[in-house]
Amino acid sequence: MAMYQNMLVVIDPNQDDQPALRRAVYLHQRIGGKIKAFLPIYDFSYEMTTLLSPDETHRNASGRNKPTHSLDT
């Protein structure tokens, strides 16, 4: 068996049982190394990009989400 020093384990937040984590702990107990858990989270703001204009999408992506005009009366 190859000697793994680092293991990346994907955690499924929709399940109580985590077979990948269980397997990684088993391997860690047998051969050592480090375990890093990864919890992927989908960012729903990506869905909004289909509703925005190209300029708005670019501003959001670059972190400059400022209004282009003022609503002062």
Give the structure's gist in a few sentences.
The protein is 34% helix and 14% strand. It is built from three helices and two strands. The model is unreliable at 69-73 (pLDDT under 50).
Description of the structure:
This protein is of the alpha+beta class and 73 residues long. Helix 1 (19-31) links the parallel strand 1 (6-10) and strand 2. Strands 1-2 form a two-stranded parallel ribbon. The protein is elongated and about 55 Å long. The protein has helices spanning 19-31, 45-48, 54-61, and strands at 6-10, 34-38. It has a domain at 1-45.
| Run of helices and strands | EHEHH
Low-confidence segments: 69-73
Output the radius of gyration.
Answer: 22 Å
**H/I helix tally:** 3
- Shape designation: elongated
Multimerization state: single chain
- SS-based class: alpha+beta
Number of strands: 2
Question: Alpha-carbon distance between the termini?
Answer: 73 Å
Strand arrangement within the widest β-sheet reads 1-2
Describe the structure using short key phrases.
73 residues, alpha+beta, two-stranded parallel ribbon, 34% helix, elongated, disordered C terminus, cytoplasm, Universal stress protein E, UspA
